Amino acid sequence: MKGVYTLIIFLKTNTLLKIGKLGIHTFPRGIYTYTGSAMGIGALSLEGRIKRHLRKNKKMKWHIDYLLNSDNAQIQSVIYAETNEKFECKVSQEIEKLKAAHVLVKRFGASDCKEGCQAHLHYLTLGPSQVQELVLKIYRKLGLEPKLFYNVNYSSNSSSVCLSRNNFISHL
């Protein structure tokens, strides 16, 4: 299956990380979105790519691997849509337009982007439920049919709810 996906990530505390060639950066506690695409087969398929993001122990290949490998990072939900067209930049650019969205590390996830994206990782000053709804609206606005793994429905003060890696994988 080919398509586009957006991870909604909660970072439990301010975190200092080295992100490959992008260097060392501080990521504040809060909600992030990361948008990617998967246009291949097997490990490069939508299913393979999302499963890889859900694993903690992996070779650090992409910028997002460094963030997700942190014990402070939790994937709260995954929104995806099947498509044979590349929508990664379109979705990311729509997220970037949101008043609550901020690019903290330029080129994060977008080092090879030819569409002018500042980054494919965005920090949002909203709760996870609000971010989830906005991302679903963006997918629909772009003519995609989004699917949601794990519906975030809790107070933004709680950090105890996390997407279960095993539960997610069993649904793919």
Describe the structure.
27% of the residues lie in helices and 26% in strands. Residues 151-172 have low confidence and may be disordered. The chain contains five helices and eight strands; from the N terminus they run ββββααβαββαβα. The radius of gyration is 15 Å and the shape is globular.
Summarize the structure.
The protein is of the alpha+beta class and 172 residues long. The protein has helices at residues 46-54, 63-68, 88-97, 128-141, 165-171; strands at 3-11, 15-18, 24-27, 30-38, 73-82, 101-102, 121-124, 147-149.
Q: Please mark out the parts with pLDDT under 50 across 5 or more consecutive residues, or reply none.
A: 151-172
The gross shape turns out to be globular
| Number of separate structural domains | 1
**Total helix count?**
5
Q: State mean pLDDT (0 to 100 scale).
A: 87
Question: What is the straight-line distance between the termini?
Answer: 11 Å
Report the sheet with the most strands, covering strand number, pairing sense and barrel closure.
6 strands, antiparallel
SSE class: alpha+beta
Number of strands: 8
Beta-strand residue percentage:
25-35%
- Taking Cα atoms only, what radius of gyration do you get, to the nearest Å? 15 Å
Key attributes of the depicted protein:
disordered C terminus, 172 residues, alpha+beta, two-stranded antiparallel ribbon
